[in-house]
Amino acid sequence: MRKATDSQSLLGALALSWVLGLTACHSTQTTIAAKLVPLQGYWEGEGAGGKCSINITGNSLLYRAGTNWWKATFTLPAGTDPEQLHATIKQSSPSRNGIGTVVFAIFKIEDGTLLLAEDDGSDKPPKAFADASSRYTVKKVQLQKEKAETSTSKRTGKP
Fold first, then answer.
1. pTM value?
2. Same domain, yes or no: 14 and 58
Protein backbone atom coordinates (compact mmCIF):
# COMPACT_ATOMS: atom_id res chain seq x y z
CA MET A 1 0.00 0.00 0.00
CA ARG A 2 2.87 2.37 0.78
CA LYS A 3 4.21 2.07 -2.78
CA ALA A 4 0.88 3.12 -4.27
CA THR A 5 0.82 6.21 -2.03
CA ASP A 6 4.38 7.12 -3.03
CA SER A 7 3.50 6.64 -6.70
CA GLN A 8 0.37 8.72 -6.31
CA SER A 9 2.38 11.45 -4.57
CA LEU A 10 4.95 11.39 -7.36
CA LEU A 11 2.25 11.53 -10.03
CA GLY A 12 0.52 14.34 -8.17
CA ALA A 13 3.77 16.31 -7.95
CA LEU A 14 4.48 15.73 -11.64
CA ALA A 15 0.95 16.82 -12.57
CA LEU A 16 1.27 19.97 -10.46
CA SER A 17 4.65 20.75 -12.05
CA TRP A 18 3.15 20.28 -15.50
CA VAL A 19 0.20 22.58 -14.73
CA LEU A 20 2.52 25.24 -13.27
CA GLY A 21 4.76 24.94 -16.33
CA LEU A 22 1.81 25.43 -18.68
CA THR A 23 0.61 28.39 -16.65
CA ALA A 24 4.07 29.98 -16.77
CA CYS A 25 4.32 29.43 -20.53
CA HIS A 26 0.82 30.79 -21.10
CA SER A 27 1.57 33.84 -18.96
CA THR A 28 4.76 34.60 -20.91
CA GLN A 29 2.99 34.17 -24.26
CA THR A 30 0.11 36.38 -23.09
CA THR A 31 2.60 39.06 -22.03
CA ILE A 32 4.40 38.90 -25.38
CA ALA A 33 1.10 38.97 -27.29
CA ALA A 34 0.02 42.02 -25.27
CA LYS A 35 3.34 43.73 -26.14
CA LEU A 36 2.63 43.12 -29.86
CA VAL A 37 -0.70 44.97 -29.89
CA PRO A 38 0.61 48.57 -29.77
CA LEU A 39 3.12 47.80 -32.56
CA GLN A 40 0.48 46.64 -35.03
CA GLY A 41 -0.24 48.86 -38.02
CA TYR A 42 1.38 51.06 -40.61
CA TRP A 43 4.03 53.59 -39.54
CA GLU A 44 5.76 56.36 -41.55
CA GLY A 45 8.59 58.71 -40.72
CA GLU A 46 12.34 59.10 -40.82
CA GLY A 47 14.97 56.40 -40.61
CA ALA A 48 18.70 56.05 -40.97
CA GLY A 49 18.45 56.63 -44.74
CA GLY A 50 15.65 59.20 -44.84
CA LYS A 51 11.91 58.67 -45.34
CA CYS A 52 10.73 55.17 -44.46
CA SER A 53 7.70 53.09 -43.57
CA ILE A 54 7.17 50.07 -41.37
CA ASN A 55 4.10 47.85 -41.63
CA ILE A 56 3.68 45.44 -38.69
CA THR A 57 1.21 42.56 -38.75
CA GLY A 58 1.47 39.97 -35.99
CA ASN A 59 5.18 39.27 -35.58
CA SER A 60 6.03 40.20 -39.18
CA LEU A 61 7.23 43.53 -40.43
CA LEU A 62 7.86 45.13 -43.79
CA TYR A 63 10.38 47.98 -43.79
CA ARG A 64 10.57 50.27 -46.85
CA ALA A 65 13.09 52.98 -47.60
CA GLY A 66 12.92 54.45 -51.10
CA THR A 67 12.65 51.60 -53.61
CA ASN A 68 14.26 49.07 -51.22
CA TRP A 69 12.33 46.86 -48.82
CA TRP A 70 12.98 44.16 -46.22
CA LYS A 71 10.50 41.60 -44.86
CA ALA A 72 11.28 40.16 -41.43
CA THR A 73 9.81 38.20 -38.58
CA PHE A 74 10.58 39.37 -35.08
CA THR A 75 10.54 38.40 -31.44
CA LEU A 76 10.20 40.57 -28.34
CA PRO A 77 12.41 39.10 -25.61
CA ALA A 78 10.70 39.32 -22.22
CA GLY A 79 12.16 41.30 -19.33
CA THR A 80 14.38 43.71 -21.25
CA ASP A 81 14.85 47.40 -20.44
CA PRO A 82 14.66 49.15 -22.79
CA GLU A 83 12.35 46.79 -24.69
CA GLN A 84 14.06 44.83 -27.46
CA LEU A 85 12.99 43.66 -30.89
CA HIS A 86 15.02 40.97 -32.69
CA ALA A 87 14.15 40.90 -36.41
CA THR A 88 15.30 38.17 -38.81
CA ILE A 89 15.31 39.28 -42.45
CA LYS A 90 13.41 36.78 -44.62
CA GLN A 91 13.17 38.61 -47.97
CA SER A 92 14.49 41.83 -49.45
CA SER A 93 14.83 43.96 -52.55
CA PRO A 94 17.40 44.07 -53.91
CA SER A 95 17.16 40.31 -53.49
CA ARG A 96 19.46 38.54 -51.05
CA ASN A 97 20.32 41.84 -49.36
CA GLY A 98 20.80 40.69 -45.77
CA ILE A 99 18.57 37.59 -45.83
CA GLY A 100 19.09 35.62 -42.63
CA THR A 101 20.60 38.60 -40.82
CA VAL A 102 19.23 39.28 -37.34
CA VAL A 103 18.80 42.96 -36.46
CA PHE A 104 18.92 43.65 -32.72
CA ALA A 105 16.98 46.81 -31.86
CA ILE A 106 15.49 48.60 -28.88
CA PHE A 107 12.14 50.36 -29.10
CA LYS A 108 9.61 52.47 -27.28
CA ILE A 109 6.28 54.05 -28.13
CA GLU A 110 5.60 57.54 -26.80
CA ASP A 111 2.76 59.86 -27.78
CA GLY A 112 1.87 57.80 -30.87
CA THR A 113 5.47 57.69 -32.08
CA LEU A 114 7.50 54.50 -32.41
CA LEU A 115 11.21 54.97 -31.85
CA LEU A 116 13.50 52.12 -32.92
CA ALA A 117 17.28 52.13 -32.53
CA GLU A 118 20.01 49.70 -33.53
CA ASP A 119 23.76 49.49 -33.88
CA ASP A 120 24.52 48.67 -37.52
CA GLY A 121 25.99 45.18 -37.87
CA SER A 122 26.07 44.50 -34.13
CA ASP A 123 25.03 41.18 -32.62
CA LYS A 124 23.39 42.96 -29.68
CA PRO A 125 21.07 45.94 -29.28
CA PRO A 126 22.27 49.35 -28.13
CA LYS A 127 21.99 50.06 -24.42
CA ALA A 128 20.36 53.46 -24.98
CA PHE A 129 18.65 55.33 -27.82
CA ALA A 130 21.21 58.14 -27.81
CA ASP A 131 24.06 55.62 -28.24
CA ALA A 132 22.60 53.88 -31.32
CA SER A 133 24.21 54.25 -34.75
CA SER A 134 20.78 54.15 -36.49
CA ARG A 135 17.46 55.52 -35.26
CA TYR A 136 13.98 55.35 -36.78
CA THR A 137 11.18 57.69 -35.70
CA VAL A 138 7.81 56.77 -37.18
CA LYS A 139 4.19 57.70 -36.49
CA LYS A 140 1.19 55.44 -36.97
CA VAL A 141 -0.74 56.28 -40.13
CA GLN A 142 -4.30 55.22 -40.79
CA LEU A 143 -4.49 53.75 -44.30
CA GLN A 144 -7.22 54.87 -46.74
CA LYS A 145 -9.14 51.56 -46.43
CA GLU A 146 -9.15 51.87 -42.63
CA LYS A 147 -10.24 55.51 -42.88
CA ALA A 148 -13.15 54.54 -45.14
CA GLU A 149 -14.22 51.72 -42.80
CA THR A 150 -14.03 54.03 -39.77
CA SER A 151 -16.00 56.72 -41.58
CA THR A 152 -18.70 54.20 -42.62
CA SER A 153 -18.91 52.83 -39.07
CA LYS A 154 -19.45 56.31 -37.68
CA ARG A 155 -22.24 57.06 -40.17
CA THR A 156 -24.09 53.75 -39.84
CA GLY A 157 -23.30 53.01 -36.22
CA LYS A 158 -22.13 49.51 -37.26
CA PRO A 159 -18.59 48.16 -36.87
1. 0.71
2. no
Give pLDDT tens digits for 87-121. 999 999 987 778 999 999 999 999 999 999 999 98
Instruction: Answer for the pair 55, 70: CB distance below 8 angstroms, yes or no.
Output: no
Beta bridge partners of 71: 62, 91
Has residue 32 been placed in a domain? yes
Q: Does 76 lie in the same domain as 114?
A: yes
Tens digit of each residue's pLDDT (9 = 90 or more) over 44-80: 999 988 999 999 999 999 999 999 999 999 999 999 9
Distances (CA, A) of 8 to 15, 16, 20, 21, 139: 10, 12, 18, 20, 58
